[in-house]
């Protein structure tokens, strides 16, 4: 898919978290700079964006922000990086998007800085763009079934109905889809948002009630890299691909 065919030319990368589960590696560096397969995790994400034709990335920064900014300033390839500064207060995922909203077009891609994945027949940003319908959707989440979620040991996050609408996993049950951390977001999702720090789950819950949270299933592989022990198996999977 050409850049003109993408739903947005801009992505937000959520990179402000403390990375507690990745300790001790994050004692001296922010989690986005942890290296997997010879490259920092945020560079994996940025390179995927550039290859897909996304020309601009807004990156929020809090924990060890100077180190993250310094690393990003050395990049000389697309996408262009703009920093949303959260040094004074960690705003979580929802609050981070709201703070960065003036820097973001409508709609915009959003992804976690520690996301690692292998594309299927088309890249994930093309997949989301092809599925996007702003008349029906406040956000479109990229999901992955358990069989394509490497290193994942949880019970899943969501169900999808035949139309692609999202509902949450019920307590004590297993849901067939895991959220990859990648989504396409309308500014409508951010309307009347809480002040300060809050999770995107607050906004998703409202969108679910209104029937405006949708999802699609990713056709490639996705890797959960939340702990140091997940790095080596992820590298082995990526080397075989």
Automatic annotation (TrEMBL):
Keywords: Nucleotidyltransferase, Transferase. Residues 11-128 form the Nucleotidyl transferase domain. One of its GO terms (molecular function) is nucleotidyltransferase activity. It holds the Pfam family NTP_transferase. SUPFAM superfamilies: Nucleotide-diphospho-sugar transferases (SSF53448). It comes from the Bacteria. CDD domains: NTP_transferase_like_1. InterPro entries: GlmU-like (IPR050065), NTP_transferase_dom (IPR005835), Nucleotide-diphossugar_trans (IPR029044). This is NTP transferase domain-containing protein. It comes from Novosphingobium silvae.
